[in-house]
Amino acid sequence: AQSVTQLGSHVSVSEGALVLLRCNYSSSVPPYLFWYVQYPNQGLQLLLKYTSAATLVKGINGFEAEFKKSETSFHLTNPSAHMSDAAEYFCAVTEADSNYQLIWGAGTKLIIKP
Amino acid sequence: DVKVTQSSRYLVKRTGEKVFLECVQDMDHENMFWYRQDPGLGLRLIYFSYDVKMKEKGDIPEGYSVSREKKERFSLILESASTNQTSMYLCASSRMGWVSYEQYFGPGTRLTVT
Asked: B4 and A43 in contact by Cβ < 8 A?
């Protein structure tokens, strides 16, 4: 069964620094991959998704993620952290025969230091 | 803009009470989902529905039931609330037909069972 691992339950970076949030999936079959963000006291919203087109995917608020099949990874980056990026980030994966279900990582809380 | 609304942001109930959580979406989506979110566990699927009156169990259906009488409305029912059901409950919806369609989330209901 597919699984998703997010390394680090909390990541702390300084304002203006590079953000790197890691996501690895388990399947050998390229899946569809998503990053969602949850701001405090809100529901989740889609940041970006990979659907087998370009391997580098750009999302909202300067975030992007690169699909690397050889590493079964889909890490999320932002070149310059803003205070407003403080949130929890979730990686999720689905497959063509999954009946629309998403498999979720445990989430990574991003902390921005002034 | 897709809107997914949930009936309450915060709810406090007593052990043994029957609890109804309601979710409404306004984008004519076929799929609707109920998740439970707990710290360190990410999102866990309770039930989902791909059509009116259709439902499928997710990963943790025990202690829960659902109802979908109208396309836009999906209800989660806790037949007899217990303290271990204290959690954040998130509703989501998505289009049918292509697995990479993203899920749209409501703001969540934080349920406390005392």
From this structure: yes
